[in-house]
Amino acid sequence: MVDIESLSDEQLRTKLIEHGFPIMPITGTTRKLMRKKLRILIESKNDGRRSLGRYSSEEESDGDVSSTKRSTRRATMGAPSVRSVKQTEPEVRKSTTHTTTTTTKRVQKTFQDEFDTGSDSEPEVIEVDTSFSPMSQMNFQQSTTKYSRPQTVTSSSHFSNSYSPSLADRPVLSSRFTSPTSDGALDRLNQIRSRLSLSATSYEQPPAAAEDEKAETPFLSNFTKRLSQLSTVPKPEYDYKNDIIKEHDTNGASAYIRSLQGRQSRYRDVNPSYYSSSNAGGQRNNLISVVLLAVFCLFFVCVAVMYYGMRNDGGVAVERPGYFIPRCGEGGPDAKPGLNCINDSDIDDAVNLMRFIKPELVKRAVSYGCKDAVVKPYLTEAEVINLRHTVDENDYPSLAKQMENMEVLAFRNAEWGISMVRTDAGNDLSEEHVFEDMDSVAVYKRTHTVGLAVLNPDLPLRCRVYNKFCALFNSALVLFGTFLTLYLLNAGYKYARQYHKQTKDEVYDMVRRIVDVLESNGDGGEDFLVINHVRDMILPIKNRKSMEKIWKQAVKFINENESRVRTEVQVVQGEPFEVWRWLGNPNLNLSASPRSKTWQGQAFETQVGSVNSLPCSPTPCLKVRGMMDDSNDRNSQLIREAVLAKCAHQCRILHCGVDSVSKCVYLKCADQNDAAIAYRNLHGWWYSGHLVTVKYLRLERYMQRFPDAMVSGPPFLKSLSPSTDWSS
Amino acid sequence: MSSTSQKHRNFVAEPMGEKPVTELAGIGEVLGKRLVSAGFDKAYVVLGQFLVLKRNQELFQEWMKDTCQANSKQSADCYQCLYDWCQEFL
Lengths: 728, 90
What we know:
By secondary structure, chain A is α+β, with helices and mostly antiparallel strands. Chain A has helices spanning 9-18, 31-56, 58-65, 67-78, 81-94, 97-115, 123-127, 134-146, 149-158, 169-176, 184-195, 199-202, 208-216, 222-231, 240-249, 252-317, 344-370, 381-391, 396-412, 438-447, 461-523, 531-538, 541-544, 548-561, 633-647, 672-682, 699-705; strands spanning 378-380, 418-422, 450-454, 528-530, 565-572, 575-582, 599-602, 621-625, 653-659, 664-669, 685-687, 690-697. Among the domains of chain A are: 9-44, no CATH class; 346-459, no CATH class; 476-582, Arc Repressor Mutant, subunit A (Orthogonal Bundle); 599-705, Alpha-Beta Plaits. In chain A, a hairpin with a 4-residue loop joins strand 9 (653-659) and strand 10 (664-669). In chain A, helix 4 (67-78) crosses helix 6 (97-115), helix 8 (134-146) packs across helix 16 (252-317) and helix 10 packs across helix 16 (252-317). Chain B: One of its GO terms (molecular function) is DNA binding.
């Protein structure tokens, strides 16, 4: 190994590159680190190589075992190993122990050839051999004995199609593992012997079991082996350390085969078990959600059952015999049969009548509540009696008496669900149509017909759902209607306000224009104007009709509220007209004079290097605040002009927009330098009594606000008025 | 790392200028003293080393471990701090 410490910087770098490490500058502070890194890299690489060596060391240690093997290996080198296997196979089956050994030897060689990856062995591999432990031996035995025959049979049949030169490794297995049935001590002895290149003796006693195995499982391909090795994950109980030690123990093949055995059987067994376990895992995962779902469903089912139970209780109670029956005689002197008590003899008839009409009532109530509202939800007394008469041959008076008795009972037994109702209120029955007692029934009976009804029948589910849905729909409709009304009211209110405001604005505007006209006229010779002429001056012909209302309001406003204008009647061209005379003088001039809308000097220093201006401007866009005090169109034009007059002669301005909502002026300059110039010219100045402040605005924000702003110039905006040097 | 420390935020918020090495996140008095004795007295010197190691976290942490016996938490903090600073200002 190279001495890393003595490497020069150049060598160190080269080495690092060799190991696939990115190139780093190697300086006084990093040299140590790089050396460390290189050491780690080299070590890790060695580790990798060593592990490689472990896996490829099989044939190497095999070769050490005996020189005879080596020679035979050379002999078989050229010949296709398939043939050799095919030839040897029948031999093996009928051979003596001796032939078996030779065969296996040869077979071993072919196996070795196949797995000869050409890697050179390392001495450590064999040194590890000494750490052979009885424990691993035991494991090994267990794994070999676990290897059961039926499995091998299936595997051989399964892979018989892929008959290849590599099939030879089964015999190796059998010959190598002569010891599964022998005791551990003998096996260990054999291992030691083989290590001491005394391999020949170890093949002296191949047990019959080995032969059987050989016969049955000759066709295990390398493919299978590799597949199984790739696909199997070490089991928890599978001691990898033991595996390694084992590998070094006798030779690679043994370990290889052993792992093959273990894995093979595992491969066969594990596949189904893997599926089953994964299935089980999936089921377990699903199980929780399924259980949760089931509990959830069960809860609702329980609730539903309880609900139905509660509802059914009322219905079931009808069938109970324990009715409350007010008997005449017990009630004292004021007991009147058919009104508040019932004679014993009539009880059965009354109850029978009840039982008879109850289903009919329920049917009617249900069909009324569900299907159609045409059917009356009640039966009148006459109808009841008629119905009863069709099945019962009693005469009408006795039936009427039964009827009365039944009514008395129905009042006393609320659980029957039969109520006496007024019939004059139509079909919509509710609690308020129900009679409170028998006396009111008797009073009512004189003038109207009394009906019997079941008020709250057990409607079928579909019907009930339908009713609920209808009710829901109705309430939703009502709610919707309410909201719609509210919304419309709100919208109407807003619109009215908007309209009012707009009209007011227009009137004010009109007044302003009138005053302007009068004012400008006042400067001239004539100091009064005919009102209608003023209108004609202001309004274009096509607008006169539509603006008439506003005009009248404006005239009214001026007559009432404008002190500088006097309305009088003058004779103009021989005809009397209402005229406006301008009385205003400069002292009364309310609107701010144009003179005050101007730059009034600088508040603070903004030249290059001062604290108030940035060293370099980040964007070409500016946002100027503090220029607008109130918003109207003329004002914004004025302000735009003022801004341009202030800075347009010094820098190139692409776009200038006045936003009356945010009360800001937006400037877009040709580039950052121009923006800086504009910034210094505007920031910190007084404009008509306001301090103007400027901020830089990001270009994308600017373009968002003014999408039609020009991207590049020329033309650049220029001020209309001649530029003034404000800096003085 | 769920959130960053106040020190980290302070450092990343502005150019490092002439800040001492102890201003770096993850470097306290002890580590700072060790770094100063190793010649790394200012934060920008550590930044230089950080850049020389090409912002490689593994190497930088290894270097910090070598230079001032920083533990992995400290070196990771310091690395993150310099990394974020670079993201911001470099």
